[in-house]
Amino acid sequence: MNKAIEIENVNKSYGDVRALEDVNLTIEQGEFFGLLGPNGAGKSTLIGVLGGLVNKDSGQVTVLGNDVVQNYRKTKKSLGIVPQEVVFDPYFNVRETLEIQSGYFGVKDNGERIDEVLDALGLKYKEDTNIRGLSGGMKRRLLIAKALVHDPDIIVLDEPTAGVDVELRKSLWDYVIKLNEQGKTIILTTHYLEEAEQLCDRIAILNKGRVVAVDQKEELIKRIDKKVIEVKLQHKPNNIEELFPTAANIEWTDTNKLKLETTRGNVISLLDKIQNSSLEIVDIDVNSAKLEDVFMKLTSLGGEENE
Ligand SMILES: Nc1ncnc2c1ncn2[C@@H]1O[C@H](COP(=O)(O)OP(=O)(O)OP(=O)(O)O)[C@@H](O)[C@H]1O
Asked: What CATH code would you report for 225-288?
């Protein structure tokens, strides 16, 4: 079986800026893949290269075994790319926009598919509305609909939920999960790390144009030896620091919670200590590291590791 995407030794510079540096990535068919990185890491450039919209300087990219430059027409049909920027021709209504988009992909008589996509994205009641009359969130829904009219095998979502309300987020994710369950490959870039943690199976982290990690989500998170014990107390103790000298970090929150950061190996002894203390405990939670911890460690936001 062909890989959904194979990216080999891809480089791209804009003048002095190395937007992509020796990028190698393989994405299997049916994966829900996260492409994460801070602003300017190269995510959109990589998606541009994938979609044949950005000319790479070197390297090779194939989509379902077809080279994105040599077989542009074929690869274009396999991909549904939802771009970050919302740009539309303001003279058409919602349905016309999707009909034109279907034509662009050479799909005729696409009414049924258009209905399905309009329904799934909660746009049906707006089908006759002119683009100028749509709210920002509705325009974003239409952007997603446009990428799906030709029923592509691989769906690439570049920051699809930036600035959209909770309701759309939920309905969008429900739909994308359904598409993934039907066998579609999903590639997602987002700055909402919690969303990526919930949705993606495998994640690549880009930093300054380079892939600094690619692994199963759980494996990435395991790289961080961190546990946070959260103890809700009746009252704030006055000698917190002295009580728990082995905790790596201690924080008291407005919600009467004592947060003790520690390592996996130290959790039990800290819990013992809490139990044997005279603290008036209301509740206790023990939390593991999150994707955000890995992200911070591996990208420049986290400091020296990647300098
Ligand atoms: N057309 C362009 N001309 C010049 N520089 C560009 C161009 N497009 C991107 N860059 C630069 O390439 C680098 C990578 O940008 P890119 O947009 O791919 O990052 P990104 O990870 O998508 O960022 P964000 O999360 O902010 O969308 C940045 O330094 C950016 O300024």
From this structure: 3.30.70.1150
Map out the domains of the chain as residue ranges: 5-219, 225-288
Q: ipTM score of the complex?
A: 0.97
Look at residues 30, 9, 33 and name the one whose alpha carbon lies nearest to residue 21.
Answer: 9
The rounded Å distance from CA 45 to ligand 1 centre is 6
Look at the alpha carbons of 259, 264, 265, 271 in this order and tell me if their dihedral is positive or negative: positive
Q: How far is the CA of 232 from the centre of ligand 1 (A)?
A: 44
Residue 301 per-residue DSSP state:
G
pTM over 0.90: no
> For residue 59, what pLDDT is reported?
97
* Closest C-alpha to ligand 1, atom 4: 14
Classify domain 5-219 at the CATH superfamily level: P-loop containing nucleotide triphosphate hydrolases (3.40.50.300)
Residues in the ligand 1 pocket, defined by CB under 6 Å: 14, 17, 19, 37, 39-45
Q: Mean pLDDT over all residues of the chain? A: 91
- For 134, the 3-state DSSP assignment is coil
Pick the atom of ligand 1 nearest to 206's CA: 21
Do 144 and 121 contact (CB within 8 A), yes or no? yes
Domains 5-219 and 225-288 share a fold: no
Nearest CA to ligand 1 atom 27: 39
144-159: per-residue pLDDT in tens? 999 999 999 999 999 8
